[in-house]
Amino acid sequence: xxxxxxxxxxxxxxxxxxxxxxxxxxxxxxxxxxxxxxxxxxxxxxxxxxxxxxxxxxxxxxxxxxxxxxxxxxxxxxxxxxxxxxxxxxxxxxxxxxxxxxxxxxxxxxxxxxxxxxxxxxxxxxxxxxxxxxxxxxxxxxxxxxxxxxxxxxxxxxxxxxxxxxxxxxxxxxxxxxxxxxxxxxxxxxxxxxxxxxxxxxxxxxxxxxxxxxxxxxxxxxxxxxxxxxxxxxxxxxxxxxxxxxxxx
Length: 249
Prior knowledge:
By secondary structure, the protein is α+β, with helices and mostly antiparallel strands. Helices cover 42% and strands 23% of the residues. The strands form 3 sheets. The chain has a 4-stranded antiparallel β-sheet with strand order 1-2-3-4. It has a 4-stranded mixed β-sheet with strand order 8-9-10-11, with helices on one face.
């Protein structure tokens, strides 16, 4: 599922931006017209207003280009979300394994101004209970509440996978990795050092997750007493990196 820019938002931001630029230009050309401001201050405020309006109109033109080129602001998949960072023209990839749920703040007052400035934004609530904002806001997409509901439905379906709801051991994780075509050069169950590799090792005293950097140098090690806990953390790393390797641009 793709989420595209709201077309009614584009003319609004272009018109408002043009009004800001026009108003700023008038203040720089007629600085003596205000009784409350000194001419110098009126000129400064005028230039600031022009700069602000120029930034806004650039944003509006960017959304216009996205709309005309049919470029989605977000792409919703079965195992991750991608949302566009307009300034970079690059998609941010968020694996569902890191997400608890999606949320949108409640609506503000039902006035014309609040309708276009309420900034009701889609947030990702991650597994650490941190609210991470996305670039999807009520102003630039249609039916942000419906989009949020759709994403939560996808997320609920994802978390119903048996592998994410059962007691884990090394054998079950290894079987999942084989069935999912996980790159075994990046993940494994032996201590062979390889670039950007994470391994899960069974020791006499418990279990260890070891990370290697791009030079195949060990950079981290964490021990666990419980096999299920170790396997769950390892599996989350496996799924997260597998999604990022496939889709991150």
